[in-house]
Amino acid sequence: MRDLQLVVFDCDGVLVDSEVTSNEVLARSLTAQGLPTTLTQARRDYQGLLLADIDSRAQAKLGRPLATDWLQRYDRDRAAVFRRELRAVPGVAETVRRIKAAGVAVCVASQGKLEKTRLSLKLTQLDLLFPDEVLFSAHSVARDKPHPDPFLHAATSMAVEPSRCAVVEDTPSGVTAAVAAGMRALGYAADSDEAALRQAGAEVFESMEEMPAALGLR
Hints:
Shape: globular
Helix content: 40-55%
Radius of gyration: 17 Å
CATH topology of the largest domain: Rossmann fold
């Protein structure tokens, strides 16, 4: 990619190995609310959504309101599990260092709230590579992914033209958002549907060690 100036990383599933953990907690929480849900179903139906959208979709499936505090309890339970189990995606720290050493800026644009991103990065020591000023959230813009708003917000804040940005995502909705933003989309498929990522418009890779070469960096 010529004139690459910024690589925008999603957080969950790209920087931190959190998707299975998050969805296991979600499946248990929904099941306890009377909506039997497996890990596979949770990932299929809710992965990549804002918490408010998860709440709306789950209530529609159940046909009645969930407990008023269930989202808060899910968020609390997930954070507790993260503190015990969360790890960085293998190889991602060294890959980010290589990208930065090549003179390319990095940032994070996540569906999650900034507090959640900060916690995830701190627990995995990736906060040393992503200071607070390069963290962005879909909660700060009018529309979340698959709309381009989170990535355009990140690019504007980093003072980089969208055409000079590459996005690293692990969900089709995130890839769709990157393409809509006019950015190059890389799909991390180690634990995702490779075909779905390609169909959304991503160039797919399966190991973080592959990314610098895919970006054309030495």
